[in-house]
Amino acid sequence: MKGTANMKFTMIAIICIALLVSPVCNAGLNTKETTKRNNKIDVQKLTDSQEVAGTEYWALLFAVGVYKNNPHQDRPSMLEAVDDLYDVLLDSPQWQADHIHKVTASEATGRRLIQELIWLIQNEDSDDMSLIYLTTHGGPLKNPSGYPVDLPPKDESDGADEILVMYDGFDKWYAFIWDDLLNFFLSLLQSQGVCLIVDSCFSGGFNDYPMFEGSIQEEYTAETFTQGFIEDFATQGRVVLMSCREDEVSYGSDFSDLLINGFTGWADFFGNGDGINSAEEAFTFAEFWLNMAGQQHPTILDLYSGEFPVTS
Question: Are 258 and 293 in contact (CB under 8 A)?
Fold first, then answer.
């Protein structure tokens, strides 16, 4: 396992202490052993960008789909989609089962999501590629009176942060993850490439820029963190794929299903034909069909130089 900088472990220690007092993380902690399975090796060689010595591919796949004491909110399609994505990744030679964590249903709590993000932070390194897939119900954050809430930093033009509902999110008002908190953890990743996929209603609001020094919004750091707080972390190339606009609902798991079909080969077939199914190509494939239907309009934030390779 690769070594990490002392600052990284200091940050993780601070986060772990925060977990003990943060109300958003009070949902029960469950453990799940990663499923072991054999990789199916593609006989086709990877492109030069995937053959860089030391590059590892890491993934966190997080699908709620089942909601405590609220079965009418259950969405089985989310659980089917995450299983399909897991299988598709392992069909590609750069992915290994012990580098992928899949969390679903009753295990998909806020505390567990943060725990898994810390796992990813501890294991990835500056020459790696990281993929995070999240699917659940989503919406704007509002107070009990129905007014929008924008938690610090105040960065929402509509006055409301976006939230993702966890397993017990319809049972406990605080069981959610909001966009700024997720962005905080993603900004701790050192990976040369980070791909975030969010399939939920109102997911277009999860397009925040990386927070920390070296990002294209350095003033964001100055307003929210001490200068040099995480100076050991590299500039992050991030691509974010969202199933709809910030003010739209997302239907079923159509966006996920189309992305996954793209990763099986259709993305590159309709893309540049280089043998790699990139996140950008898969998004273009999914966007075309969803725009044809007209019910939802996927959005993308692409800060990654070139194309983010997902499968080959």
Answer: no
Q: How many helices (H) and strands (E) does the chain have?
A: 8, 11
Structure tokens, 123? 């294991």
Q: Are 106 and 65 in contact (CB under 8 A)?
A: no
Phi, psi of 139 (to 5 degrees): 180, 175
Whether the Cβ atoms of residue 94 and residue 312 lie closer than 8 Å to each other? yes
Tell me: the pLDDT tens digits for 275-294? 999 999 999 999 999 988 88
- Which domains, and CATH codes, for the chain? 56-311 (3.40.50.1460)
Reported as half-sphere exposure (CB side, CA atoms, 13 A), residue 251 has a value of 9
Q: Are 248 and 242 in contact (CB under 8 A)?
A: no
pTM score, two decimals? 0.76
Residue with tokens 């397993």: 167
Nearest alpha carbon to residue 162 among 171, 173, 151: 151
Cα gap 227→243, rounded to integer Å: 34
Taking alpha carbons only, the member of 214, 225, 216 closest to residue 153 is 225
